[in-house]
Automatic annotation (TrEMBL):
This is Ig-like domain-containing protein. The lineage of its organism: Eukaryota, Metazoa, Cnidaria, Anthozoa, Hexacorallia. Residues 155-250, 274-342 form the Ig-like domain. The chain crosses the membrane at residues 370-390. Keywords: Disulfide bond, Glycoprotein, Immunoglobulin domain, Membrane, Signal, Transmembrane, Transmembrane helix.
Length: 460
C-alpha cells in the first residue's frame, strides 16, 4: 500500500500530461521533418515547425525548438552549434478569424555530412525536434532519420577525355559504368547521352546485372563542325532504391574538330565604295574556331597582324559557334585598299604563307562611273559654246574672211549615243568630226573629246 502511495504522484503527473496532450494541439506541425538521405561530404538540412493548431481564442506561443539525438539506451544529447552545424530561425505571423498567432521555423544545417551523422551508425542515435511553448514546460517531440550514403555506394560513369578529330573522321563514344560497392541498395533509373544539353539517346531501367551491355555507345560518322561540342553521359540512380530519392551521376568530354581552311583557288576580290562598309568572309572551319586577321596595305610590304582587337574600324563577328567569321570594315577610305588575310592562329605573327586565305580589296568612288559621262557632257557644252560664238562672229565679218578655225563646225542636228562600260573603252563619233572617247577601270575612270581637222577621217 505504501509503495502505491509513493507512485501516486508520478501516475497523476502522467495522467495530466496525457490529458493535456489529448486536448492540446500545440507541437511540431506540417510540413514535418522528413527522413533525409544525404551523401557523405555534402551538406544537409532539416526544418521543424512549431505551432498551435487549436481553435481556442488564446493560443500558445512557440518559444523555441531544440534538436536532439537519442541513442539506443534512450539517452538524449542536445545538438548545439559547432563548426559543422548551425541553425536558422524565423517566425511567421498567422491571422485566423481576425486573431494573430505565431509560427516558429527552425532549420538545422550540417555543412559536411559524415557517417557519424547517420542515425543508425552514429553513436548519438536518431534525431528529434522538441518544441516548447511560452509558460508550458511540456515538450512536444517529432523524430526523423538521417541516412548517410557513402560515396562508394553510388555507381560512377566515365568517358574519354578531350578528343580532337579531323573532319570526315569517325568515332565511337563509350560511357563506362562502374557499380557501387553495395549495388543492391542503389537502383539504376536511366542512362543517357547529351550533347550541349540536348538529349541524343537514352535507355530507361538498364539491366542491373549488365548495364554496360544494354547501353550502346554513341557513334559519330563523317564528323563535321557541328559534331563538335560537349558530350555528357548522365546516369540517374535511386538512392536506397527509393523512387523519390533520385540522384544524378555524370561525366563529360569535349569533342573538338581540328580547324582547317577551305581555301579558294583564286584569291577572292571585294569591291567597296568610299564611306561605306564591306564584309569579308573567312573560309576557316573547326570547333572551337579561332582565327587571326592580317592586313597589307597596297604598295607596301609590311603586314599588320591581329587587326580588329583595338582598332574601331574593324569588327570581327560571327552568327553562331559553328558559323564562319567575318571581318567588317567601316567607313571605307582609299587607304584601306590592299590585301587582307584570314589565318589560322599563329601567335599574331606577320607571316601570311600557308594557313591563310588572301582577299583583295579595292575601294572606288561611289560616283566613279559617272565622272567620264559628266566630263564628256561638260566638254561638249564648252565646245558647243565655242562653235556657236565663232559662228556668230563669222556672220558679222565680210565675205572672204578666213575661217576662224581650221576645224569645221558640225551640223546642229547631230545625234550620238554615249556608251560607258566598266573596264572597256568605248567611243561615240559625232558627224565624223567630233569624237567622244571614255574608259573605265577598277581603280580609275577617264573621258576624252577629240576634234578632227577638216578632211581627217575616223581611221586616221
Amino acid at each position: 500500500m505504501a509503495s502505491f502511495a509513493g507512485k501516486l504522484p508520478t501516475l497523476l503527473a502522467l495522467f495530466l500530461v496525457e490529458k493535456a496532450e489529448g486536448t492540446d494541439k500545440f507541437g511540431i506541425v506540417k510540413p514535418f521533418p522528413e527522413n533525409i538521405y544525404p551523401i557523405e561530404r555534402t551538406s544537409a538540412e532539416v526544418t521543424c515547425v512549431a505551432f498551435d493548431l487549436s481553435t481556442e481564442s488564446k493560443k500558445k506561443t512557440p518559444e523555441r525548438i531544440l534538436f536532439m539525438r537519442r541513442n539506443k539506451s534512450g539517452r538524449y544529447t542536445i545538438i548545439t552549434e559547432t563548426e559543422n552545424i548551425y541553425f536558422r530561425n524565423r517566425t511567421e505571423e498567422v491571422v485566423e478569424d481576425g486573431k494573430k498567432s505565431k509560427k516558429l521555423f527552425v532549420t538545422m544545417v550540417i555543412r559536411n555530412v559524415t557517417l557519424n551523422d547517420d542515425s543508425t551508425y552514429g553513436t548519438l542515435g536518431r534525431y528529434e525536434c522538441h518544441a516548447f511553448a511560452v509558460g508550458d514546460p511540456v515538450e512536444r517531440k517529432h523524430g526523423f532519420y538521417v541516412n548517410v550514403i557513402l560515396k562508394t555506394e553510388i555507381p560512377t560513369v566515365t568517358v574519354p577525355e578531350v578528343i580532337v578529330l579531323r573532319h570526315s573522321e569517325n568515332i565511337t563514344l563509350a560511357c563506362n559504368l562502374t557499380e557501387g560497392e553495395d549495388g543492391g541498395n542503389t537502383g539504376l533509373k536511366s542512362i543517357s547521352w547529351y550533347k550541349d544539353g540536348v538529349l541524343k539517346k537514352t535507355l530507361r531501367n538498364p539491366e542491373p546485372g549488365n548495364p554496360q551491355g544494354s547501353f550502346e555507345p554513341l557513334k559519330l560518322s563523317n564528323v563535321g563542325v557541328k559534331d563538335g561540342g560537349n558530350y555528357t553521359c548522365l546516369l540517374i540512380v535511386l538512392l536506397r532504391n527509393k523512387e523519390d530519392k533520385k540522384y544524378s551521376v555524370s561525366d563529360s568530354t569535349m569533342v573538338e574538330i581540328a580547324a582547317w581552311l577551305d581555301k579558294q583557288k583564286v584569291d577572292p576580290e571585294y569591291q567597296g565604295y568610299k564611306g561605306r562598309n564591306v564584309s569579308l568572309e573567312c573560309p576557316a572551319k573547326g570547333f572551337p574556331l579561332h582565327v587571326e586577321w592580317k592586313f597589307k596595305k597596297k604598295g607596301e610590304d609590311k603586314v599588320r597582324s591581329c587587326i580588329g582587337a583595338l582598332d574601331g574600324k574593324y569588327r570581327i563577328h560571327r552568327k553562331g559557334i559553328y558559323e564562319p567569321y567575318f571581318l567588317t570594315l567601316t567607313d571605307l577610305q582609299y587607304s584601306d585598299r590592299g590585301s587582307y588575310y584570314c589565318c589560322l592562329p599563329s601567335n599574331c605573327s606577320d607571316s601570311v604563307q600557308g594557313n591563310c586565305q588572301r582577299f583583295v580589296l579595292r575601294v572606288r568612288d561611289p560616283l566613279g562611273p559617272l565622272w567620264p559621262v559628266i566630263g564628256i557632257i561638260v566638254e561638249a557644252i564648252v565646245l558647243f559654246l565655242i562653235i556657236f560664238i565663232a559662228e556668230k562672229r563669222s556672220k558679222n565679218k565680210k565675205r572672204g574672211t578666213k575661217a576662224i578655225s581650221s576645224y569645221r563646225v558640225f551640223s546642229h542636228d547631230v545625234t550620238a549615243a554615249i556608251l560607258v562600260s566598266q573596264n572597256n573603252e568605248t567611243a561615240a563619233i559625232l558627224d565624223k568630226r567630233v569624237e567622244f572617247r571614255s574608259s573605265s577601270s577598277i581603280d580609275s575612270d577617264r573621258g576624252q573629246v577629240r576634234l578632227r581637222k577638216v578632211g581627217e577621217t575616223a581611221d586616221a
